[in-house]
Specification:
- The protein has one helix at about 55-69; strands at about 5-15, 15-20, 25-30, 40-45, 50-55.
- Helices cover about 20% and strands about 45% of the residues.
- By secondary structure, it is an alpha+beta fold.
- The chain is built from 1 helix and 5 strands.
């Protein structure tokens, strides 16, 4: 089973972004989204950013994920 998780964009490099997932940084393709900026929260699934989130949505999703751990 795969899980799509919220991540904060910390750097941009063309079609890719470095994103932070609870202190772990990974590279994700942002080619499926428009206007991604540093500081945005995105949903990452299988290495692709598939959706943008606002801060409240990201915080709620991260809170719920933390409860599962």
């Amino acid at each position: 089973m795969c899980l799509a998780i919220p991540a904060k964009v910390t750097a941009l490099d063309g079609e890719f972004a470095t994103v932070d997932v609870n202190g772990v940084t990974v590279r994700a393709c942002i080619g499926l989204l428009d206007d991604v900026e540093i500081g945005d929260f995105v949903i990452v699934h299988a290495g692709f950013a598939i959706s943008k989130l606002d801060l409240a949505e990201a915080e709620e999703a991260l809170r719920l994920l933390e409860q599962l751990m």
